[in-house]
Amino acid sequence: MAERKFRFVSPGVFINEIDNSQLPNDLPDVGPIIIGRSDYGPAMRPVRVSSPSQFIEFYGNPIPGGRGDDVWRDGNYAGPTYGAYAALGYLRGGVGPVTYVRLLGTQASDATAAGYAGWMPGDGSKPTAAKTTNDTAMGLFLFNSSSTDMFNADVGNGRLAAIWYTNGATIALSGTNHDAVADEGVGGFIASTGAGLEFKAKVGDGSNTYVTTFNFDKNSSKYIRKVFNTNPMLGNSTHTLAADVANLGESYWLGETFDRFATTTTADDSVDGHITNTAAGKVYGIILPLASNDTDTNNYGYKRRGFEDPETGWIFSQNTATSYTGFDAQSNTQKLFKVKALNHAEWASNNIKISISDIRASKNDIDSYGTFTVLVRKASDSDNVPEIIEQFTGCNLNPASENYIAKKIGDRYMEWDSTERRLKQYGEFDNQSKYIYVEMASIVAGGNSDPSLLPFGFYGPPKPKDVTIFSGSLVTFASGATTIAGGTAVNTYLTGTTSFDGGLPVDDLSATSLIAVDDAGGGAELTASFLFPKLPLRVSASDGGLSNPKDAFFGVQTSLSRGSKRFDPGYSDYVKASPGSSGVFAPSDDSSSRFEYSFIFTLDDISGSQGVHVSGSSAEIAAADQSLNAADSTYTSSLDSGYNSFTMPLWGGFNGLDITEMEPFNNTAIGASPTETGNYEYYTVKRAIDTVSDPEFVEANLISVPGITQPIVTDQVIAVAEARADALAVIDIENAYTPKTESTLDYKNRLGSVSSAVTSLQSRRINSSYACTYYPWVQIRDDISNASLWVPPSVIAIGTFASAEARDELWFAPAGFTRGGLSAGAGGWGVLSTTERLRKIDRDDLYETNINPIATFPSEGIVVFGQKTLQVTPSALDRINVRRLMIFLKKRVSRIASGILFDQNVQTTWTRFKTEVDKFLGSVQARLGLTEFRVVLDETTTTPDLVDRNILYAKIFLKPARSIEFIAIDFFITRTGASFDD
Q1: Does 502 have pLDDT greater than 50?
Q2: Of 315, 395, 906, 982, which shows the fewest CB atoms inside 10 Å?
Q3: Residue 487 lies in a domain
Q4: Which domain holds residue 948?
Q5: How far is CA 862 from its chain centroid?
Q6: Greater confidence, 365 or 848?
């Protein structure tokens, strides 16, 4: 009331102005839903971003494509991210947010083999469920010996140094074998040919042979990743001609290289032993297949499954036993929690790591819970200069506390329900992090754990078990396969009897005679160990030259070497997902398991005043005289000494994409008649569309999947827009242009035509006011990367919707020289050209078919020159501006109506509703959206019968303002003496 708003002290007249004419906001929080790829970001769930900078923060810069560097490590920068360009083009208009759904590979729960996501070495085209003879993974193991003849007794430890994936090729070493005889082949020990771990190799595909020399010196021109092909896409005949690929690159690619693990020349906590002599002939290499069968989880070359988020191993407590004698981290600790990536998949594995720091035991009897900090750090940083992305301080393990770690970080995640076709959310606490969430051990979440427990260590990533060949034991594989991955004991090895013949099928090795090393005819048998890679651990607090050892984070070390501050670019190769068809998993305690934890780290192993990690066996047993805590019989000793921090990797992220494709969701791969169970590309895109089909889950006024033209997909987009009834589908059509990501043809032969585009659309018989399309494709200038690229017309059409709304209103036509000038930046990006310059007759043909032309004019430049929907039936709704107006009006009026839900169904409520709607529609009319309107809400609409049924019924009559699309002007030429007033 008025008297409550004034301060009455002395007499006077008090006047207040009350503005009841204010209009509600015009819903700037509603924008398009765009589905597509991006550099990184949360995947397969809708995320709303409000500005260009926020989009780039979440999803990275758009990718113009055209790059083919070290694709294995760097990722796919070959195919343009059309969705990202569309999203940024709209956001640059500044009128509202974008809801983005990043695509990563998924597969149906009942997918057939042909419908599995992921990848495997193929035959030069799309991988299938069954590989051909030479499609596998081949591993190079390096052995070192200072003796003249390394085979007198014990070969020692061989470490996996590199993996090649073959598409029909054979990879073999060439040189001198252990008997000093010239040799070459798969399965034979071959001596290094030069200092610095230099070897000679041959690659053959049955017709051609490529010979090269390689080493592990990153500064050398012969460095292994410079010599061999590292781009899996070169073997895809859909978009790459074999004739264009040098060095047989289409028949193989180099995957992981484990430089630090395999080639270290100094003592290192990551390696059991090290190379002591790098002189020529002192290091031996052997190449063996890393597979036991075509589809087994032990096959390094088989990764067929949907995308997965990485996680840390279980983070566990300090020693819970009463004594440190015989301490075993697996038996004497309590699992507390895991950290998991929040839908970031492989990017999270490669780019972030998790640290626990400032671990503090409770110092009082009031609160017996200790505290700690969780850091999300860049994987590439060093402990000298930590780069913290997010931090959560003062965390504890008390479920009743506001600082409970699950509450501080969040434990919610989403899973796809294939039965209900929607995302379901699980977890108790909202996510406070953009990158991670936590999974709590049930004993901690239930409040039943010992309050004194603190995070003290973690389980390292799983790896294949190391393999030992024992002297005198000549047992072959039960299956007859000649492999060593996954802990299958290789009880003998192959000499060079398997000669290189330019294309020997790898599986033929199983038919080759398995023999022991016969040294000087004496029949001596081989003893050797084959070690699989694991991440290095910090050995000393002084590693990397830390000035203050107490700043050290023990645990995983991501640098090139113990003493280096530089990031190891091969780090991503250590944290990749396991092979096979299963996801992230923990090794079984069963002795028959072919996987094991690469290490188990605990602060209970830290020793000495200067901080040294003294891990014991694989169970991390710390002897009483080794560690600080064991010496003092208390877990607080290491903490009190200042060693209270450790770092873990996020392991096992997988994108679920076919890495041999430049555009993983290209139209050729989707096909004309795909099934959800038999085509992961189609299933993934359809699932993304279904995810945003509920208007109560995601608000929107546009929806688009830029670049996908297959009718089975675009029809689904239209169907969702119609069912939602609050969004306009912007689709791309067939036969307009074929991008180079899915064709080997030259530019001229990838062009479509007006007639083919018109014919294909007409054959679909679409009649919908909730959809629109454009022609042709356009070339834009990416001012972020300073690159030019061809994009589908939906990209710039979406941008014009934003710029038109920003300039005028959303019910103004997003077309013409004023609001559709693409050369002037109306689409959000500078447009340089079109795939076809349209003539007047072309524009007529397109417009008659409801395809909006993108025309080029000599003076005005490139312009969106149409604004039709795909409605065939003539009405006001066959124009985009009217459809957009109606979407806006319906959404706004429904908001007003929701404000009176559950109010009394009486005249007073009716009047309030009618008054608000009248105000709103009046404002739209004043802004030229309507020419006339009328709202009817009385006893004639809401009858007593409806009142009894709790229904309010109103009628709203509208006359939308039409845009001018045709102008007719007559010029009359008169005689000189004529009067214009006549």
Answers
A1: no
A2: 982
A3: yes
A4: 899-982
A5: 35
A6: 848
